[in-house]
Amino acid sequence: MKMLCKENKLLEALRILEEEMSSVGVKPNSYCYNVLIGACGRVGYTKKAFQLYSQMKKRGLTPKHVVFTSLFNACANSPWPFTDGLQRATKLHKQLMENGIILNNTSSHAMIKAFGRCGDINTAFQIVDEMVYKGLLITTESLNFLLQACITHQEAGFRHALLVWRKMRELKLSPDIYSYNLLVQCIKECQAGDPQLTSQLLQETPSPSMTVKGTQKPKINGEHTEEILQIESKKKPSERESKAHIEADRYVKSGENSDSLIEPEYTVIEVKRKMENAQGDQQVLPDLLGRKMTVGNVIGLSSLQQPKDRLALVGGPVGIFKHMAEDNVKPDIRTVAQILESLPADTQTEEALLDSMKNIGIVPDCQFCNMLIRRRSFRRDTSAAKEVLDYMQKYHLVPDLITLGCLALGYHRLHDAKNFLKDMDSLGFKPNLEIMTSLVKNSLVKTDYYFTVEMLFEMRDRNIVPDECLINILEKARKRARDMILKSEEDGDNFKQKNKLKGMRLFLLEYKNWLKASSMQLPDHPWAQYRAATTTQR
């Protein structure tokens, strides 16, 4: 049973419990349930995991911490985290509290992860407070799970992540590679929320609450434990302004030069100039990630809507690399990939990051190069996107189908798209649905319906089956074309629009014929592979 679960054959493992063992009269023990509930938790099969948990209790077996860990993992990995996962995690948490069951660190971490991924960031933070109250040790791993929770809070996750980072420094915990990667992901994906609350981060100093040294448990102040973290900061700004200082930028290895990285313009931050020293013309930015927070010469913040602005607030790529070096953490390919997504959209800054990667010793992979091509294709810089192919050759990376799909995003003319498809054929690649969908989208952005019709013909000739997403896109285009044709008939044909209207009429005719001859590809149920053929789908 355990071997089947390791081989991702969950359906076969469940059959042993539900069919083979019952047919010979063998009663399952706690170990059987632990293995199966753990396997269901890893794939997010919440329904079966909780069914097995109920069966376990009915048989008089006492669930241990490993079972609760697996159940919360199932909630965290659920295909429907904000409904199914959250409801089950909330109910289980309530039952554990009512029964007075105290979880260990591993189970508590799984619970933080579950509520974080399911969008209940308040409960995730409260669980850390409960851990302190119960005398459990708060570690870097504990706060890493909180950083995961911050990522799910799209509106203010970046501010919450900075609060977690400040608490990590206050507890004298050293961040690891996972901490930095989660922080950079938060910079990329999450907003900062209320600008006034974000500005308070530049004015406050860490509160002198409990400290954790070695394996010593946190102390309880008075009759209750002070909250280790708060979602909203309520402290007043410090009256003492931290002195500004600039630390020399360095990378992981000694002797590496940080001048190779060109920082973006910090237009989002108002900075006072230091005129009394030799660095009078240099911006003195806040140091929010270091062991000792300093506000630099910042006098105010405006909106932090763009990832590049949030990246600038923490010192940009140079600031992140500097603190990673101080914490003896070497960036990996995921770190620079996340930073790439947060950089300003210009080739010069991207090239500077590539130079920094070379200095640090990070070797790019095909996925990173695909992301770079995608960025440049989105801003229609096709020549710069093609230059990445030469960059890939330097590292002996072979372009794959995803690489070509990213290049397809930059072709907005019929002539270029047809040549691109011919080049794919010559290289031995077959266009897939994602590539054809990108080309169809590009044609509709240009409102070139001749282009659209040609792409539909290509799909028909290549036997590429459309999915629901592409059909929805084409249906919206059909409605727009029909409305414009009706409007032109009421207002009279415009000579300038005559060719475009002709293309719309051709599209409506050919799209109808194409749709009749096409079958639609429907997505599989997330749990289909774990269910028997006779089982009713959810």
Secondary structure elements and their pairing?
Elements: H1 2-6, H2 10-23, H3 30-43, H4 46-58, H5 65-76, H6 81-98, H7 105-117, H8 121-133, H9 140-152, H10 157-170, H11 177-189, H12 195-200, E1 269-271, E2 298-301, H13 307-313, H14 316-326, H15 333-342, H16 347-360, H17 366-378, H18 382-394, H19 401-408, H20 414-427, H21 433-445, H22 449-461, H23 468-491, H24 498-517
Antiparallel strand pairs: 1-2
Summarize the structure.
InterPro entries: PPR_rpt, TPR-like_helical_dom_sf. The chain is mostly helical and 538 residues long.
- From the alpha carbons, calculate the radius of gyration and give it in angstroms: 28 Å
How many angstroms does the end-to-end distance come to?
25 Å
The sequence of SSEs as H and E is HHHHHHHHHHHHEEHHHHHHHHHHHH
Q: Please summarize the sheet with the most strands.
A: 2 strands, antiparallel
Proportion of helical residues: 55-70%
Mean pLDDT across all residues, rounded? 81
Strand content: under 5%
Could you say which overall geometry the principal axes of the C-alpha atoms support? globular
Structural class: mainly alpha
Please list the strands of the largest sheet in the order they lie side by side: 1-2
The beta-strand count equals 2
Low-pLDDT runs of 5+ residues are 205-281, 533-538
Number of helices: 24
